[in-house]
Amino acid sequence: MKTFVKLTALLLALVFIAALAACKTEEKPTEEPVDMTGKPFSNDFDMALVIGGKTYPVRVDSKEVLEALGSDYKYAETISCVYEGYDKTFTYEGIVVSTVPVDDKDVIEMFSVTGGDYKTTRGIGIGASREEVVKAYGENFFDDGWYVTYTESGDPEKISEMRIQFRFVDDVLTEFYVYSPSYSD
Q1: Distance CA 66, CA 85 (A)
Q2: Which of 5, 71, 77, 94 has its CA 20 to 30 A from that of 137?
Q3: How far apart are alpha carbons 117 and 126 in whole angstroms?
């Protein structure tokens, strides 16, 4: 009987250890982060937003990012003037996700950030200083008096170019947009 009790205890301990090992642990990146400080704006690197440690680019299906942000949002839609279907807006506290209908998907056209812990791929978030933004993105921007805008070309005349726009009040970042327009020049 003692052997049976010991074997049962051992078996239960092994089951407990296996259950603990099966628990999902926090995934850690396998690659070192890319340091883009001061390097030119790049559509491939910069046209995304970091939410909860995961990077979500524009111009992809919005399903995954909306699942990550949750169901506590205000919803609006309007008939698309570029695509067949509805442009949609999902407004959360501190962030708005704007989508356009492409190939039966709601594709992200823009992230509008006004609060929260959301960051650009260069680690810039609400509350950053103008100096920190320029250090991260470099001097190749244009300033229209409302927004400091970064694009690959740096040409303010190319209105259809992908862009990140930063709005400052007293040199403190209060809102920013990661925007990939649906129209062409």
Answers
A1: 19
A2: 94
A3: 8
Residues 86, 88: Cα–Cα separation, whole Å: 6
Whole-model pTM above 0.85? no
Round to whole Å and give the CA distance between 82 and 30: 40
Closest-CA residue to 52 (of 137, 133, 129, 116): 116
For 29-85, list the strands marked E by DSSP. Answer: 48-51, 54-57, 74-79
Instruction: Count CB-CB contacts under 10 A for residue 37.
Output: 11
Q: Reply yes or no on domain 43-179 having CATH 1.25.40.
A: no
Strand partners, 78: 87
C-alpha to C-alpha distance for 82 and 85, rounded to whole angstroms = 9
Asked if 111 and 87 touch (Cβ cutoff 8 Å), the reply is: no
Cα separation of 41 and 163, whole Å? 9
How do the domains of the chain map onto residue ranges? 43-179
Residue 79 has pLDDT above 70, yes or no: yes
